[in-house]
């Protein structure tokens, strides 16, 4: 059985992430979405929120499951029997950022990383940009699953993060 891991911070999961996972699910028997910690980022949403939102956004894909990555990604891959990591890339910046991680994971355990190009309609959608646009009152409703949008409005409201007009 071919098993792939799609890892990420998913803070929050976007329609671009959903598209990558859906496409990976057509290539592999099973896809495990790994909600992980990126040491260089401070998440807006808790890991429980990110897991719940990812599960809800992907519940229509039967061969996909969502789980927390409690430590190293390579250990998570081994625990799930995954031979491959699938990561979406939107352009050369992503490629440059992802390459050291792919090489490190390959060094640590031999697991291979496959890069999947984002579809053009999602190539500008990044979780960080989505959060920034929201903070200043911009509309991101067509970039994230509906439940994500609601969770972000609540979370940003609680943390007094809105700098422009608050969303409803
Ligand atoms: O969505 P992101 O932030 O680009 O994903 C990066 C992530 C979370 C996949 C990466 O930081 C990661 O693998 N974290 C788990 C801990 C780990 O294995 N770190 C070493 C990576 S080479």
Content of β-strand: 15-25%
Q: What is the CATH topology descriptor?
A: Rossmann fold
Secondary-structure-derived class:
alpha/beta
Count of DSSP helices?
Answer: 6
What does this structure look like?
The chain has 168 residues and is of the alpha/beta class. It is 42% helix and 17% strand. The model has no long low-confidence stretch (mean pLDDT 95). It is built from 6 helices and 5 strands. The protein is globular, with a radius of gyration of 16 Å. The protein has helices at residues 15-27, 47-57, 73-79, 92-109, 127-135, 146-158, and strands spanning 3-8, 30-35, 64-68, 84-89, 112-117. It has a 5-stranded parallel β-sheet with strand order 3-2-1-4-5, with helices on both faces. It has a single domain, classed as HUPs (Rossmann fold, 3-Layer(aba) Sandwich), CATH 3.40.50.620. Bound molecules: 4'-phosphopantetheine. 4'-phosphopantetheine binds at residues 7-9, 36-38, 41, 69, 72-73, 101, 104-105.
